[in-house]
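Internal QA ticket QA-208
Title: Verify multi-chain structure generation after dependency bump
Assignee: T.L.

Test input:
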Amino acid sequence: MITAVVRAFRTRMFHLRTCAAKLRPLTASQTVKTFSQNRPAAARTFGQIRSYTAPVAAEPFLSGTSSNYVEEMYYAWLENPKSVHKSWDIFFRNTNAGAPPGTAYQSPLPLSPGSLSALARAQPLVEAQPNVDKLVEDHLAVQSLIRAYQIRGHHVAQLDPLGILDADLDSSVPADIISSTDKLDLAVFKERLRMLTVGGFYGLDESDLDKVFHLPTTTFIGGQESALPLREIIRRLEMAYCQHIGVEFMFINDLEQCQWIRQKFETPGIMQFTNEEKRTLLARLVRSTRFEEFLQRKWSSEKRFGLEGCEVLIPALKTIIDKSSENGVDYVIMGMPHRGRLNVLANVIRKELEQIFCQFDSKLEAADEGSGDVKYHLGMYHRRINRVTDRNITLSLVANPSHLEAADPVVMGKTKAEQFYCGDTEGKKVMSILLHGDAAFAGQGIVYETFHLSDLPSYTTHGTVHVVVNNQIGFTTDPRMARSSPYPTDVARVVNAPIFHVNSDDPEAVMYVCKVAAEWRSTFHKDVVVDLVCYRRNGHNEMDEPMFTQPLMYKQIRKQKPVLQKYAELLVSQGVVNQPEYEEEISKYDKICEEAFARSKDEKILHIKHWLDSPWPGFFTLDGQPRSMSCPSTGLTEDILTHIGNVASSVPVENFTIHGGLSRILKTRGELVKNRTVDWALAEYMAFGSLLKEGIHIRLSGQDVERGTFSHRHHVLHDQNVDKRTCIPMNHLWPNQAPYTVCNSSLSEYGVLGFELGFAMASPNALVLWEAQFGDFHNTAQCIIDQFICPGQAKWVRQNGIVLLLPHGMEGMGPEHSSARPERFLQMCNDDPDVLPNLEEANFDINQLYDCNWVVVNCSTPGNFFHVLRRQILLPFRKPLIIFTPKSLLRHPEARTSFDEMLPGTHFQRVIPEDGPAAQNPEDVKRLLLCTGKVYYDLTRERKARSMVEQVAITRIEQLSPFPFDLLLQEVQKYPSAELAWCQEEHKNQGYYDYVKPRLRTTMNRAKPVWYAGRDPAAAPATGNKKTHLTELQRLLDTAFDLDAFKKFS
Ligand SMILES: Cc1ncc(C[n+]2csc(CCOP(=O)(O)OP(=O)(O)O)c2C)c(N)n1
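Actual output:
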């Protein structure tokens, strides 16, 4: 049946096309060319419009979008002949009646506005010979015109409150829309209309302005009407797209989403506010404005990065939150830069004002350890009732460094985690809002990386609302020097996020846009951008003189009436509030500030802890201390080890065909388990699997982590016969285990590491690991390492237990694929190289861990890797853990650990002492070689080859930082006659030497020199030449075992 209808329709459409094929076509050149006239910014006037009348028979009339239009009409006509314009009705009737091509059309009647009813009286004249060409062209022109506004209307919207800059950095008016800068200047408007219509772009003429045109289904400007006179069509398009809101959305390749947006902005009268809403908006503006004024009055010489010029940000955020709360969200996680941050804390998050004010008192002593941070970087967590919706809402502002946009992925990661832990799989309860500056949004690559996480299954937070405080300046730099894209927001287009530009001096337009943005997010669960085009009333900070660099802009700003004043005047003129009510609102808030200020003077101490963005209830004692200062054994029972090993070497689902090569790998694993040993992959499996049993969620993310860059892991099995069928055996270990997430990430380090750090923030009861691909690729995430991981606790009190797995090793693979740059991590450790800690202290090792900023290890055995992963969770506090992981050791036959070293009672070994013949007769040992990681295997092989097992002892430092002073002191004392040498495969200015040497000297009270056996200093981390690599290796081994090597220096 359906097929028959479709066939009939196709035949009819073919006939329609044939009828229309004789009509004069719109040419390709007409559609492709851009008709822009460049004009100075201040004068968007009407330029010469090119006329397109030359007939070119380049394409049949009814192809492409033109035919879509006719088809659309035809469908509508089939459903209801009255729903289309009379002329189309006639056309389709004539066509169906078999009228020959070129004769089916009849011109529409010219109508003046208000005479729509005349249309209904039009009669079909099958036998008449209408001006078919013109009619069809006119309809298509009107459709194109509507589309042109939808696509390009934002280019002429009045977005700059100062009226001097174009938000899109382009002063030209697109030639296919009618708009003028000054909507009130009717003369200008008419002139533009005349130029565009009369013989202009659309080939319409003035008489067409009063003709009625059927509206396509791709517009909502008609409201209840399905047809409008052209003049009214243009007016409504101007109202929808060229006022104070610029809607950029036509790049979105989803019809439903485009329709949704059109409906939100085109429907006549849709932007309505009740008096109550207007009064709330005014009150919020009062708070926002008076807060900055209060700070300015009290601390006129303090930097606060005030919001003046974008005070509307506060009601904007509150509207987004209100609307989202109404739609079911009860947790909002926010990230933002410096600008307006204190105001957001005070008026959006509702941090107690006295807590904010006392941050301005530099004499207050900090109660917490660490260096703290400036007041406009601190985070915050607050739960309260949303007054508009009467629902509970939790707001969290993530602490951030000065590095603009660096917090973006962190916020996303934290949001993802919060969603994960409350089972919010669609982002209906937890959402994120990210604030940006215009210069930073356009300039910082992390913005792009973060956008690219937004729709990936293991990273999506189901839509972020981005708000750009677009004050049209970045410090002193003009946007024309700061970006190559028209808007600072263009980066969002890559993920099909709609972008709503809005003039921030029109608070109601801002509120409307924010409401739509929140609705978009809750409807489609995708990102959306609100671009608040505003200005910055002061310099970059309150001390800065902006007139040095932006004299004209700032002359204009001096004249600019503050938005609060403008809006108050508007509401007074509308009778929504009266002047005394407005003044009362102001004095009420001023009083609140004054009272809080008085209370802030009573504060004796500054508690950074009050500024935590992610409290971990129950993990610490009530006063924030660890519940113990010890760590239980990290070993496991034989049963558990065997069970995990068996699952790791099998396929735990039925009818699942794995690759033959993988079968062999699993078989080898099975044999290892039978032999009660583990290799690297199995050790990791055992650590993860056992923690999952204990209810610890594990998330491993990074490039190609599912298989493992070196093809050793294979945590996700792929059915060789069924597309996309996978199995994660780790999730089949125990009946009530915690979930295991393993996810290949996008090819990003900065974004993904930031994301995982944010994920790890949310809960202490999860092991979150990020694995770098290998070598020094992690350095593109350096900002996350330097700004968050290394100093995070010191700056913001928040602990974080993220684990970085950094494949490292000099194996002749060239400069970038070799070194994970241990020197960088070690150089940032906070332990003092020159001071020997009190080694007698109880729980010395745990205290050391508690005091450090992060833990750096390089394990030489799979067993130790297993223990350190488990220790990470069994410790009563959280520290970032940096692990240099091996490459060749993954398959090295000697890099195996027996179950015996993983049983209950066993621990992570910070140092693995020599246990061979040298250790039996330590007095005879001539040299104690200290090393870390894989070089140990080269050294033992060489020592054996040289038969020096009694003369040379080799001890491994597995935990580099905090430095195991206690264990090394024992080692050094054990070999009284031995020279001490540090051996590493890295170059001398890299690796561990500079870190280890002073600490070893301190350990033995500088009694002996610490010699060096390793590669010479170098600029690059490794040679790209395999032979050179081997020569260098042999040279360092020669030095390590030449007992005369250091004589010349002593
Ligand atoms: C990554 C980074 N580079 C440079 C700076 C120094 N800096 C601080 S604010 C600023 C200008 C930011 O402009 P914009 O993003 O437009 O925000 P606005 O200050 O205008 O609100 C710059 C360059 C920084 N904080 N972070």
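Spot checks passed. The two ends are 100 Å apart (CA to CA).
Status: verified.
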